[in-house]
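Quick one: C-alpha cells for this chain, please?
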Amino acid sequence: MNPVRKSRSGIISVIAALVVVSVFWLIYLPRTEAYKTYKLEADLKKTLQAIQPPAGARVGSTTSIHKGSVAIVLGTYDIDSGFEKVKEHYLGEFARHGFVYKGEDKQASGQVNVHFCAPGYQATLFPLQFPVTVKSQHYEIMLIKMDGSTC
C-alpha cells in the first residue's frame, strides 16, 4: 500500500472515531441525571437573575439545592431601605416576569413572607432578621421549580 494512502486512511479513521464519540456524547449527555440537574439549576438561576432587585440593593450570594424533581435557588440581598419598599418593588417586578401574587403569611416572630407563583415556579420573598445593630435590610428570594406545578 502506498504510504500517502496509508496516512490518509489513518487520518480518516481517527476523524471517523472522533465523530462517533462526539455523536455518542451529544445523545448520551443530555440524558444523564447530572446534566438534567445542571440545566434545571441553570434555568432557575437565570430566572432569579432576570428578576431585578430594587435600585441600591446589593446582591449577596446565590445558592442552589436540588432534591428529586424539586430544585431551589436562594438569592440573598441587602438594601438601605425598609422591607415595605422592597415588597412594593417586587410586587411589580414579579408581575413583569409572569408571576402572580399569592398573598402573605405572618410568622410568630413577626416576619412576613410574600408568595408568588408562575406555571412550574413558586417564589417567596422574606426579610432576614438581624440584630438592631445592622443598619441595612437583608432579604432573600427563594425560587422553587417544581415539575407540573400550577399556580
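The CA atoms of residues 25 and 31 lie 10 Å apart.
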